[in-house]
């Protein structure tokens, strides 16, 4: 059995990838400190509670498991928090990633899949974004991820080490079978906020910024269903296992929606006219991020199945009602 070591596999995205890996017959070991993750979300494999900042611990866990490949999801992920607490982001996301790679070096694991982000592009003028555009992140979260991409580039030149960096755009929705979804009580992502307000877990939600240079003044993002993203991970893994060279791929649909359009769609899908307040801009938010996803389709044969904002919201809504 091919063995995959998954840091952050108890988190929102990691748990969906673990589910797919388990269904495809991979042997999985999740390494997670459960700071934002949930042990009940790990449907396959073993879960070890441990911190990527603790080098001895992750080295021992990896050496015992002897993985064929490592998927690295563990990170801090909230853009405005990264502006307020930059050191926490550099420590967890950069130093933490270096520890994971060092542990791989010690136990001779040489294939790595990295959770990067659209935030590495910053505030580009041209849209959609292709992988060869310059990296110019505008917040510490994006910078921490761009730094790890550089580490990977350099380390793969120095050693027999191959990696795929997947630059996720805005990941949303839940497992269509309803077994897992977002569980963080203090989640901040837009679609989660919409469905939590619709089911009364929050009194109201805010739209941050109505004066952006976009058609309706609110920010535009490219929302990708979490199971399509999980598929991209399995394709990237198969690519590396078959000898593919290190590479970087955008993960998005190439279709942007404004915050206002998402809120309107959420009201339609849920059938609830939940309260929305208009608030000032949130620090660190670029006006628009939309992917050019040609490369992942051509090179990895990615075929998204859930490219439908209504379906993304519906799966998130069904999950929220289930965990009420
Ligand atoms: N959610 C998005 O829209 C999005 C977009 C782009 C990139 N990403 C990236 O995807 C990855 C997963 O994000 P998510 O949305 O599932 O977040 P999440 O918070 O649900 O998952 C992160 C997981 O990592 C674990 N973790 C964090 N720090 C750790 C540490 N020091 N040691 C061990 N485990 C640790 C947490 O307990 C959690 O289970 C992150 O790397 C994030 O930067 C997410
Ligand atoms: O209650 C809310 C929540 C969000 N927004 C707005 O909705 C848009 C999307 O915000 P999210 O918080 O859902 O996501 P971000 O775009 O800030 O960031 C997410 O996607 C990025 C990639 O685009 C990063 O990778 C990051 O990890 C991940 O959190 C932003 O304009 C934000 O201001 C609101 O108006 N109200």
Automatic annotation (TrEMBL):
<keyword id="KW-0520">NAD</keyword>
<keyword id="KW-0119">Carbohydrate metabolism</keyword>
<dbReference type="InterPro" id="IPR036291">
    <property type="entry name" value="NAD(P)-bd_dom_sf"/>
</dbReference>
<feature type="domain" description="NAD-dependent epimerase/dehydratase">
    <location>
        <begin position="4"/>
        <end position="252"/>
    </location>
</feature>
<dbReference type="GO" id="GO:0033499">
    <property type="term" value="P:galactose catabolic process via UDP-galactose, Leloir pathway"/>
</dbReference>
<protein>
    <recommendedName>
        <fullName>UDP-glucose 4-epimerase</fullName>
        <ecNumber>5.1.3.2</ecNumber>
    </recommendedName>
</protein>
<comment type="pathway">
    <text>Carbohydrate metabolism; galactose metabolism.</text>
</comment>
<dbReference type="GO" id="GO:0003978">
    <property type="term" value="F:UDP-glucose 4-epimerase activity"/>
</dbReference>
<dbReference type="InterPro" id="IPR005886">
    <property type="entry name" value="UDP_G4E"/>
</dbReference>
<comment type="subunit">
    <text>Homodimer.</text>
</comment>
<dbReference type="InterPro" id="IPR001509">
    <property type="entry name" value="Epimerase_deHydtase"/>
</dbReference>
<comment type="similarity">
    <text>Belongs to the NAD(P)-dependent epimerase/dehydratase family.</text>
</comment>
<keyword id="KW-0299">Galactose metabolism</keyword>
<keyword id="KW-0413">Isomerase</keyword>
<dbReference type="Pfam" id="PF01370">
    <property type="entry name" value="Epimerase"/>
</dbReference>
């Amino acid at each position: 059995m091919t063995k995959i070591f998954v840091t952050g596999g108890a988190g929102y995205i990691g748990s969906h990838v673990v589910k797919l890996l388990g269904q495809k017959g991979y042997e999985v070991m999740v390494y997670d400190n459960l700071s934002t993750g949930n042990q009940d979300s790990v449907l396959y494999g073993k879960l070890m509670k441990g911190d990527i900042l603790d080098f001895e611990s992750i080295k021992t866990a990896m050496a015992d498991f002897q993985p064929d490949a490592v998927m690295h999801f563990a990170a801090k992920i909230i853009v405005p928090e990264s502006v307020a607490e930059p050191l926490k982001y550099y420590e967890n996301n950069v130093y933490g990633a270096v520890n994971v790679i060092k542990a791989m070096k010690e136990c001779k694991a040489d294939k790595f899949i990295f959770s990067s982000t659209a935030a590495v592009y910053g505030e580009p003028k041209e849209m959609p974004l292709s992988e060869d555009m310059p990296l110019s992140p505008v917040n510490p979260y994006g910078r921490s991820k761009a730094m790890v991409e550089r580490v990977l580039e350099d380390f793969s030149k120095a050693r027999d080490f191959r990696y795929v960096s997947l630059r996720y755009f805005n990941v949303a929705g839940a497992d269509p079978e309803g077994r897992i979804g977002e569980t963080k009580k203090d989640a901040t992502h837009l679609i989660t906020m919409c469905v939590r307000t619709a089911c009364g877990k929050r009194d109201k939600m805010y739209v941050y910024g109505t004066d952006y240079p976009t058609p309706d003044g609110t920010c535009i993002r490219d929302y990708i269903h979490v199971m399509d993203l999980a598929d991209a991970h399995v394709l990237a893994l198969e690519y590396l296992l078959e000898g593919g060279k290190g590479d970087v791929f955008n993960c998005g649909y190439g279709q942007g929606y404004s915050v206002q359009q998402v809120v309107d769609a959420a009201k339609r899908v849920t059938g609830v006219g939940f309260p929305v307040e208009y608030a000032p801009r949130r620090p660190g938010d670029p006006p628009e991020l939309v992917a050019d996803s040609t490369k992942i389709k051509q090179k990895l044969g990615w075929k998204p199945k859930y490219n439908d904002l209504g379906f993304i919201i519906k799966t998130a809504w069904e999950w929220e009602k289930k965990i009420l």
